[in-house]
Amino acid sequence: MDYQPHCDALARHLEIAPFLEELAATGIEVDQETWQQILLEAAKLAEGVIAPVDRVMDEVGAKIVDGRVKTVPGHKEAWEQFAQGGWIGLPLPEELGGMALPLVLQNACEELFNRASPAFSMLGTPGRTAAEMLVASAPAEIAGEWVPRLVSGEWGATICISEPDAGSDVGRIRIRAVSDGAGGWRITGEKCWISFGDHDLTQRIGHCMLARSNEQPGVRGLSLFLVPDSIEDGTRNGAFVRRIEEKLGLHGSPTCVMGYEDAQGTLIGPEGRGLQTLFHMMLRMRLSCGPQGIGVAANAFDRALRYAGERRQGGAPTDKPVLIREHADVQRMLLGMAGRIEAARGVSLACGNILQLSERAEDPAEKARWASLAQFLLPIAKDMSARLAFDCASEAVQVFGGAGYTREWPVEQTLRDARVFAVFEGTSGIQAIDMVHRRLWREKGEGLGHFLAIARGEGDLGDTEAAAQLGASLDTLEAVAAQMAQMEGSGRDGDAGALAFLDLCGACVGGWIAGRLVRDAGEDPAGARLKAAARFYLAELPARTEALGRLATLGERRLEGFAAFVED
């Protein structure tokens, strides 16, 4: 199995993931043998069913035919196998058609599916996360009707937030919802950037939509609605696909501009509290961005590693050319990719446990602590994995050389597919501003403090050099955070350094995982690979964190020259 090394790494991470004991204490069964069997089944499905349709999805793409989106040949059959295997509802309760498995295992399986095809995987995630949101917030009859069908893959779901003039700035949403006087609502307007907004893979699609339901300004005027694309008798519900965006990558995932004309909708959660209600779905979608980026990065790395073991170039002209993996620069690229992948993988799996603990903890103080830690780590996991995917794909092209730039090899598609990951679900800049304004300033660095206490409390790493490298980097983070905290209210200094600060936090969180891998990964071949990747990551960490710290605290003065580029 080509996916076997990937499965081995995931299985070892699951064995040593942070907070498993705390998770088990909440009543969740931690059964590593069962988890590994599920991973192997996920890998077989990914490699044998999903991956073969991915190239067709890229080359042919979804099309609009007679006003509806038509997916590529083989997509529907692959979707049906995926759905029938129960992969959509892994963390959902058994009584709703799920398997009641932990989020950490969901994350691990999603890595494998995204490795096979990130475009394919973008349909299952909103269906699952919508089901979880409906369980938490919808009227019982709505949840009872929709959740089992979403979990079975019979019906699908979208998340509808963006409009032409309202993307991350959700307070400017204009689509209107008007009460019909009989308990229902009618929605009219337009939404854009809707992944799988229309398609032929499920019988029905439910749009989880933010719409303006009152005259309050900003987000206070927004409510959340479930807007089906068809009503009970199968007729269209005033929901129409206007067009599919022509995109750089992810051609098999139709990104739709949707129009709604007097469409029937059901209020989910309290009126005027739409964004707060939708957060349940948004947090889980953000969590899924981690395995999305890591799975794609792992695919790029494995292809580059294999190619480096086949391609010969260089060495003494009188001798046989050497494999390019013997060159120091190629080893640097491959080890750098491996180190970042394993660090991000550990962070992603830890976030799954932390988010679940924030919901299951019974003690209010513990619940608040886990929630604070989740709010700190989720933007890091999302952004570091998103940029990791593109960076690893770019490095893979570099390892391949000119061949990597051609369509003969699949790494050019990986590069195209990955570029959007740092854009959707909150751009890198949005995540960075949130980290500084909300997590550092408004919350006084509470989540960061919890992380530092955990990372410093790991104890003996069994490697003096690794411990020193991690310790020095944590010291840098703590010092820079103190400097950044002083920037509150001092103009744009914090904003100018926000992305570097987010990167600094991510580097150190990755260092915490790398330290754990050095200590716990084991001595077998799988463990040796994880340790090698982790040691390379830690070797570069102090220099990287020092540079990021300096960039984070430079202030806004360096932006003054931008005025020269502005025309009146």
UniProtKB/TrEMBL annotation:
It comes from Novosphingobium decolorationis. SUPFAM superfamilies: Acyl-CoA dehydrogenase C-terminal domain-like, Acyl-CoA dehydrogenase NM domain-like. Residues 272-435 form the Acyl-CoA dehydrogenase/oxidase C-terminal domain. Keywords: FAD, Flavoprotein, Oxidoreductase. Residues 41-154 form the Acyl-CoA dehydrogenase/oxidase N-terminal domain. Its cofactor is FAD. Residues 159-262 form the Acyl-CoA oxidase/dehydrogenase middle domain. InterPro entries: Acyl-CoA_Oxase/DH_mid-dom, Acyl-CoA_Oxase/DH_mid-dom_sf, AcylCo_DH-like_C, AcylCo_DH/oxidase_C, AcylCoA_DH/ox_N, AcylCoA_DH/ox_N_sf, AcylCoA_DH/oxidase_NM_dom_sf, Diverse_Acyl-CoA_DH. PANTHER family: ACYL-COA DEHYDROGENASE, BROAD-SPECIFICITY LINEAR ACYL-COA DEHYDROGENASE FADE5. Belongs to the acyl-CoA dehydrogenase family. This is Acyl-CoA dehydrogenase.
